[in-house]
């Protein structure tokens, strides 16, 4: 009963806080789909796989929740640090001591305090929070660029793998909500017309932006290694063009130069992002994942992959193609793999149609939209390539793609809906 009230209050606050560019009925329909998807994901792992991240992370979270009930101050210390030596009996009971897994378990434990360690109720909290980040971005995209509502809804709320793997107690659910808020907040700063929101609203949005950056950095830092240079390059290029219109015809070159410099700077932000170390980690992770995948037909196999720039470039086309389109429909596998294969087939056909439409229509695109399109392609294709190289297991890759797939799909659907020019203000 208590959780029913909290759910209602949380949904009410999100509903009131949101500026609606989509019909309000979409809010409740999208939220319902999200909650159903999270519940379905839990059912699949409980009764089909019988194991997996969502179950192991929840089990670890219950250990922390028990500490919270018995020793609240000890729990608070564990929440903000990892004092392994001080509480060995606690950490010995936790199955996964990886820093990223621990962070996820800590977040789940907070939900467990509200639900009394009820997996299904905690699952709903995660789905609601993920939905809010996605809903925020959807409204900003329509508000700022006059995009067709249907393509935004399809890309972020109705695309099967996105709403399924981006829901419930799973890292990708948190990632999806946070990434969408980061992108929506950044685009709003860059493209929103001058206005005077309340100072409280500005402070809240900024603090939430910093918090979501922190969560993504701790959970999956490599997304930010591509996303932040992309957003910053977009902002710098657009601002320079606004002040110096003559640079407009060099917009792509300007973006590329900014992106290159920022990526070099990003390489110093995390030990694993130093170029030499990054390539070694990438390739080592590939071979390690390959060893852990007994069924080779469920993996992408690269011949002679080495930790150097030339080898990465040589294997990039295969990584992009197979990472985007596999599993193929004719490959053997279970029901979930066949569903993913059908989705990939439809996506591949849509992608080809979009290319044909561009060749036939030859649309006129404003410089502002050229930058947005190029930025979307850079982010999506780089993430696709890197994830496909580092994680050759097709089951994992289908899940990991939720961090960029809706953005790429949105671009493709926007192209298919064009007449003489892409939508946008």
UniProtKB/TrEMBL annotation:
The chain crosses the membrane at residues 26-48, 119-138, 150-168, 174-191, 200-217, 250-269, 339-359, 371-391, 397-416. Keywords: Membrane, Transmembrane, Transmembrane helix. The keyword Transmembrane applies. This is Glycosyltransferase RgtA/B/C/D-like domain-containing protein.
């Amino acid at each position: 009963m208590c959780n029913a009230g909290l759910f209602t209050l949380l949904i009410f606050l999100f509903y009131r806080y949101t500026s609606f560019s989509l019909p309000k009925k979409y809010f409740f329909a999208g939220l319902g789909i999200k909650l159903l998807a999270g519940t379905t994901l839990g059912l699949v792992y409980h009764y089909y796989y019988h194991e997996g991240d969502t179950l192991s992370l929840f089990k670890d979270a219950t250990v922390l929740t028990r500490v919270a009930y018995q020793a609240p101050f000890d729990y608070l210390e564990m929440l903000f640090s990892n004092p392994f030596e001080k509480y060995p009996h606690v950490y010995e009971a936790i199955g996964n001591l990886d820093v990223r897994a621990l962070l996820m378990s800590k977040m789940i434990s907070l939900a467990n305090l509200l639900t009394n360690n009820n997996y299904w109720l905690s699952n709903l909290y995660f789905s609601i929070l993920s939905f809010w980040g996605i809903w925020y971005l959807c409204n900003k995209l329509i508000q700022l660029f006059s995009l067709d509502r249907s393509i935004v809804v399809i890309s972020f709320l109705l695309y099967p793998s996105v709403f399924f793997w981006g829901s419930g107690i799973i890292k990708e659910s948190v990632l999806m909500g946070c990434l969408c808020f980061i992108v929506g907040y950044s685009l709003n700063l860059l493209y929103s017309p001058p206005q005077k929101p309340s100072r409280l609203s500005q402070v809240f949005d900024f603090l939430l932006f910093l918090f979501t950056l922190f969560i993504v950095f701790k959970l999956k830092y490599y997304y930010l290694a591509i996303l932040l240079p992309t957003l910053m390059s977009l902002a710098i290029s657009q601002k320079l063009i606004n002040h110096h219109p003559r640079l407009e015809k060099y917009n792509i070159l300007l973006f590329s130069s900014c992106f290159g410099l920022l990526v070099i700077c990003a390489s110093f932000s995390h030990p694993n992002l130093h170029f030499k170390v990054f390539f070694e980690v990438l390739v080592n992770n590939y071979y390690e994942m390959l060893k852990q995948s007994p069924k080779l037909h469920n993996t992408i196999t690269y011949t002679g992959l080495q930790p150097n720039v030339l080898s990465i470039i040589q294997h990039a086309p295969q990584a992009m193609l197979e990472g985007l389109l596999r599993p193929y429909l004719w490959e053997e596998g279970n029901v979930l793999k066949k569903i993913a294969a059908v989705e990939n087939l439809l996506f591949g056909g849509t992608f080809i149609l979009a290319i044909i439409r561009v060749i036939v229509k030859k649309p006129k695109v404003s410089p502002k939209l050229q930058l947005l399109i190029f930025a979307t392609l850079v982010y999506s294709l780089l993430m696709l390539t890197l994830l496909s190289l580092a994680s050759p297991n097709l089951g994992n890759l289908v899940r990991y793609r939720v961090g960029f797939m809706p953005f790429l799909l949105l671009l493709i659907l926007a192209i298919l809906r064009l007449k003489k020019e892409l939508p946008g203000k």
